Amino acid sequence: MNHTITRREFLKASAALSVLPIAQFAHAQGSDTLKVGLVGCGGRGTGAAIDCLRADPGTVIWAMGDIFEDRLNASYEGLKEQFAERVQAPPERRFLGFDAYKKVLESGIDLVLLCTPPAFRPVHFLAAMEAGKHVFMEKPVAVCPEGVRMVLRGDEIAKQKRLGVMPGTQYRWHPGYQGVIERIRAGHIGAIRAAYAYYNAASPAPQPRQPNWSDVVYQLRNWLFYTWLAGDQPVEQFVHNIDVMNWVMGSVPLRAMAMGGRQVRTAPEYGDVYDHFAIEYEYPNGVRVLAMCRQMDNTAYRVSNLVVGAEGTALMEQFTNFYVRGKETWEPGKQWLNPYVEEHRVLIESIRKGDPINETRTIAESTLTAIMGRMSAYTGKIVTWDAAMNSKLNLVERVMNLNYDSPAPQDPVPIPGKTPLV
After folding, report:
1. Are residues 116 and 150 in the same domain?
2. In what order do the strands lie in the sheet with 134-137?
3. How many domains does the chain have?
4. What is the pLDDT of residues 357-415, one digit of tens each?
5. Does this model's pTM top 0.85?
6. For position 180, which CATH number holds?
7. What are the pLDDT digits (tens) for 205-216?
8. In terms of domains, do 218 and 231 share one?
C-alpha cells in the first residue's frame, strides 16, 4: 500500500465483494476432518483450540507452535488430556522458535489459529494468506497503522483465494449483542444521540523475572505491558467494545480526541503502557462516543456499551445484561450460546459449505479505531481516521527478525504534548 488512502477509499474497499469463482479450498471438500494448527500456545491460544474442538467434532489439532517450550508443552498436555485422540500433534509437528508459525503453516493444516501477542499478527496473517490457509485470529490484529495495512493486504489475498477469516470478536456472535443492535437499527430507540463504551477492570499481574531470561524474553513474557507488543489497553482489550461502537454506527469514526496516563502502575515492571484512558470518538452522523478504559485493582468494574437514542436507550453489558427500552422494550433472558465456541462454529460451517466467511476488514477497522485513540492520548493531539490510516508509525518491523537475544526496545512512557504524532 504505497499510496495514501482516504477514509472514503477505505470504506469503499471495505464494501467491495469478490466475485471470483471458488477454484480450490485449503480444506479438501468431502473430507470430514479439518486439520487445525495452533500458533501461540498461551492461555488464549489454548482456549481458542478448546473452542475450535468443541465447535466441530471433525476438527483435530494437527500442529502446534510457540516461542516458549513450557507454553508449548503445557498446552499440548492440557489439550491431550481433555480431547485425547483429537490432538494429533506428535513431537515432529510441535515446533519451537520464532519461525514456528512457518512450520505450522507447512505441516498440512487446513485452518490455523493465530493467537500470539498482537505485534506478530500482521506477519503471521499475511503468511497464512499466502500459504492459502483459513484463519481464526485473536484480536487485535495489529498494534500500529503499518500492521493494519499489512492485514488489509492479506485481506486482498483472502478474497482472491476465497479463504475464511474469523477474528476473535466474540461479541458479534452473541445473541444479546445481535438482538440489541438489530433493534437499534430498526429504530426502537429512535435516532442515536450519543453512546458510551467502557472497559474498566482490574490489572493483570506482571510475571517476575527469571535468571535465565534476556531482556527481550522478559518483555515477551510480560507482553501486555509493552505497547510494541500489545498496543496498550485500548488496542489489546478495549477493542471489543470499540468494535461494538463501530458495529452500532455502521461506520468508522472521523476523528478521536483522548487523554490518559499512569497513576497506579508506575513501577518499571509495568513497562511503558498507561493504566487509564478516556477517548471521544466523533462519527460521520455527528454522534460522539465516550470510550473509557482502565486497569486498576480495587476500582469499580464496568464492561459495557450504552447507546442513547432520541426515544430510548439500549444496553449491552458483556455477557450478562441486555435491554432495549424505547418505542418497544426488549429484555431477553440470560441463557445464551457460548460465543467463544460460536465464532469457530460459524467459521468452520462456512468452510464446509464452500462459502468461507471473511471478517478481516471489520476487525482491521476496529483495530485502527483503537490505535487512533491511543495515538491521541499519547500525543495529546486530535487524530483523524485518514491521519491514522496513513501514519508512518511502524512497530511491525521490530518483530521481523526477532530472536531470543535481540535487543529489547526501551521505549519511554509517552508524554502528551511532547510525544510526537507520527
Report:
1. yes
2. 94-96, 59-66, 34-39, 111-114, 134-137, 165-167
3. 2
4. 999 999 999 999 999 999 999 999 999 999 999 999 999 999 999 999 999 999 999 99
5. yes
6. 3.30.360.10
7. 999 999 999 999
8. yes
